[in-house]
Every structure is written in C-alpha cells, then in structure tokens.
C-alpha cells in the first residue's frame, strides 16, 4: 500500500512540474531538458518504490501511475473546468498585428520563437496577423487578415 501512496504523490508532483515547465511539446525539448526529464524519472523511481526492488513493487508503481493517468483523462474529457486546469487554456499572443509581450513573458515564449513560428506558416510580418493563439499543446495558431490560418509548433523559451 505504501508504494501506491508514494506513486500517487509522485504522480501529482510530476503533473505539477509539467504544468510549470510550460507548453513545449516533446519533440521540441532541448537536449538538456530531455536529459533532465530522463534523470528525474530515475530519481522518481527511487522515491516511489523506496527500497522495494521487487517486480511486484514495480508493477504496483507503474499500475498506480497508469490508473491515475486513465482516471485523470476520463474526468478531463467530461469536465471543461478540469480540462482547463489539467491541460491549460489557449492564450492570445497577437491581436490585430500587436504582440502581447506580457502574455509572451507569462508563457515563457520568446518573441523570436513567435516570429519563427509565423515564418513556418509563410507569414513574413506579424502586422498581417489578425490573431495568434498559443494553444495548450504548445502550437501557435495564426489567423491572418486575408482569412488564411495555420498552426505552427511553439517552443518553450523558458
């Protein structure tokens, strides 16, 4: 039972860490961030299983994390409020060609990364952007004044 409680606590801590880290998607992690996350996984394993190195302890820990993930996904699909807490809300970063630098700072998104994402969508200048939204998954959706739209992968500048 101790392993289940430890796994549940670590699950909540890892969820909180991923929310604080930002909206960068897995494919956009820097080498350093990837190494940190892998190392964290190894460190977490020690905390979850304690001195229990048995197969049973490992199965309990992984099973608890998997069950909590499934339960969270189930509630997330049924509650808009919980969905916003778990995955985040879209954030407007450009309105009528004007960049919201405060929103960029809060989301730890560098202005140059925003420009790069726009260029990937064929947008040369943000002045032609009617609306740009940083989506909860880290992508940036652009809506231009000529009615075209697109989405580009965002990057976490934090």
Provide keyphrases for this structure.
158 residues; transmembrane; 5-stranded antiparallel sheet; CRO Repressor; UPF0702_alpha/beta_dom_sf; 15% strand; alpha+beta; 2 domains; transmembrane helix; membrane; single chain
How many separate structural domains? 2
The backbone outline, from C-alpha atoms, is elongated
- Provide the β-strand percentage band: 15-25%
Stretches where pLDDT is under 50 for at least 5 consecutive residues are none
**In DSSP terms, counting alpha (H) and pi (I) runs of 4 or more, how many helices?**
6
| SSE sequence, one letter per element | HHHHEEHHEEE
Strand order of the largest sheet: 2-1-3-4-5
Into which percent range does the helicity of residues fall?
55-70%
* Biggest pleated-sheet summary: 5 strands, antiparallel
The secondary-structure class comes to alpha+beta
Find the count of extended strands (DSSP E, 2+ residues).
Answer: 5
Average pLDDT, rounded to a whole number, is 80
N- and C-termini, Cα separation:
38 Å
The rounded Rg comes to: 19 Å
Membrane topology: Multi-pass membrane protein
Family: Belongs to the UPF0702 family.
InterPro entries: DUF421, UPF0702_alpha/beta_dom_sf
Keywords: Cell membrane, Membrane, Transmembrane, Transmembrane helix
Characterization of this structure:
This protein is an alpha+beta fold. It has two domains: 2-87; 91-153, bsu07140 like domains (CRO Repressor), CATH 3.30.240.20. Helices cover 55% and strands 15% of the residues. It contains six helices and five strands. The protein has helices at 2-21, 31-49, 55-78, 80-87, 101-106, 111-120; strands spanning 91-95, 98-99, 129-134, 139-144, 149-153. A five-stranded antiparallel β-sheet has the order 2-1-3-4-5. A hairpin with a 4-residue loop joins strand 3 and strand 4 (139-144). Helix 1 (2-21) packs antiparallel against helix 2 and helix 1 packs across helix 3. It starts with a helix and ends in a 5-residue tail after the last strand. The mean pLDDT is 80. Its main location: membrane. Pfam families: DUF421 (PF04239). Belongs to the UPF0702 family.
